[in-house]
Amino acid sequence: MTITTCVFDAYGTLFDVTAAAQAAAAEPNHTDLANVWPAIARDWRAKQLEYSWLRAVAGRHCDFWQLTQDGLDWALEANHVTNPGTRARLLELYWELPAYPEAPTILETLKSRGINTAILSNGSPAMLNAAVTSAKIGRFLDDTLSVEDVGVFKPSDRVYDMVGARFGCVKDSVLFVSSNGWDAAGAAGYGFQTAWVNRAGAPVDRLYAAPHHVVSDLTAIPELI
Amino acid sequence: MTITTCVFDAYGTLFDVTAAAQAAAAEPNHTDLANVWPAIARDWRAKQLEYSWLRAVAGRHCDFWQLTQDGLDWALEANHVTNPGTRARLLELYWELPAYPEAPTILETLKSRGINTAILSNGSPAMLNAAVTSAKIGRFLDDTLSVEDVGVFKPSDRVYDMVGARFGCVKDSVLFVSSNGWDAAGAAGYGFQTAWVNRAGAPVDRLYAAPHHVVSDLTAIPELI
């Protein structure tokens, strides 16, 4: 099946979620992060995702901004960072995460070839709009789809259903791209073609489906279409 | 409301899930685990739980024995352990996990006071029966309830519903005990009275409900009733 539509996860895939903790740690007001920022970045992300899955299982949805604060609060306590100013700065930076260096060029290439392009993310509309604007990639995207429109997080089928509803395309004409192994597996199980951006060289997740392609960054995505 | 029924999570709460990797590492045939068994125990557990939540969100249930193998396979690859004999031994030990030292006495105390006692676990019936038998705690338990009867993992309401269906009790006459912060929070959100056994001194999970009691091991449980 010819790919007509290329859909990207946002956090970790187009945007570098570790950048907030790293950038704050480099600022003179946040020396409390100097030694612990990698642990905070890791715990923050892990808890943010864990809470998204738990809320989806229990039917207790909240938006991703709440999860982002909840995950950070756990991570700060676990790493003994108590300064409210540090918390505020980390949250502020989450609204202006940098895109990975190759992301704008890849998106531009896809658009120039007539491929539909979109983000499909757990993020709230406000968070996603801020990140897209900050990274200056809005002109290469046909749409930014947020799970807030369906009220549940990935990997629920109701989230992946949003792509067909928006673009009128069948499942296997979609290439879904995610750096989150579980998201790539979830999308593969749903019926999309999938590419896992395995930047960290992690083992493949043992789930109910496997990604069709594994790449080390976004550069190879146009070659898959 | 008077507590009539005390329900325990199994893995991590009554049974020490880190014991399998630790015990195997101490055996002469498994020196490949010498330096990495703590990382394997951590990754194995993390992936086992992650996969349980993801499968529950996506409606792709499998039993906990499959998840246990899937999580271990990820953990072994991440820690560069390739010996099939080591894998087999770790899985074998998961069927005979030791109970925490205080567990039998606490269960016996509850039974002597006429409290209904049960396990409510993600584990498969066969796994749970083996663990209960191995730890010799069956005579202190009125029942062992497995999520396999409802086909979805915690923290789905359908799992917690099994307690009322079995014992005919209202929600807040149940004390639910778990060492998993997310499980204690999930049960609290469901409507049980809850105790979180926080053996590791971890921060409380920022979820939609908080446990009613936090204890450092099982010793204090009878005092809560």
Q: TL;DR?
A:
Chain A is built from eight helices and six strands, in the order βαααααβαβαβαββ. With 225 residues, chain A is an alpha/beta fold. Chain A folds into two domains: 5-15 and 97-224, HAD superfamily/HAD-like (Rossmann fold, 3-Layer(aba) Sandwich), CATH 3.40.50.1000; 19-96, Putative phosphatase, domain 2 (DNA polymerase, domain 1, Orthogonal Bundle).
Give the helices and strands, then pairings.
2 copies of one chain form a homodimer.
Chain A: E1 5-8, H1 19-25, H2 37-58, H3 64-78, H4 84-93, H5 103-112, E2 116-121, H6 125-135, E3 143-146, H7 157-167, E4 174-178, H8 181-190, E5 193-197, E6 213-215
What descriptive keywords fit this protein?
homodimer, 225 residues, alpha/beta, Rossmann fold, DNA polymerase, domain 1, 6 strands, 43% helix, globular
Describe the structure.
Two copies of one chain form a homodimer. Chain A has 225 residues and is of the alpha/beta class. The first copy, chain A, folds into two domains: 5-15 and 97-224, 3-Layer(aba) Sandwich (Rossmann fold); 19-96, DNA polymerase, domain 1 (Orthogonal Bundle). Chain A contains eight helices and six strands, in the order βαααααβαβαβαββ. The first copy, chain A, has helices at residues 19-25, 37-58, 64-78, 84-93, 103-112, 125-135, 157-167, 181-190; strands at residues 5-8, 116-121, 143-146, 174-178, 193-197, 213-215. In chain A, strands 3-2-1-4-5-6 form a six-stranded parallel β-sheet, sandwiched between helices. The longest helix of chain A has 22 residues, at 37-58. Chain A starts with a strand and ends in a 10-residue tail after the last strand. The model of chain A has no long low-confidence stretch (mean pLDDT 97). Chain A binds chain B through residues 47, 50-51, 53-60, 62, 69-71, 73-74, 77-78, 152-157, 182, 185-186, 189, 202-203, 205-208, and chain B through 47, 50-51, 53-60, 62, 69-71, 73-74, 77-78, 152-157, 182, 185-186, 189, 202-203, 205-208.
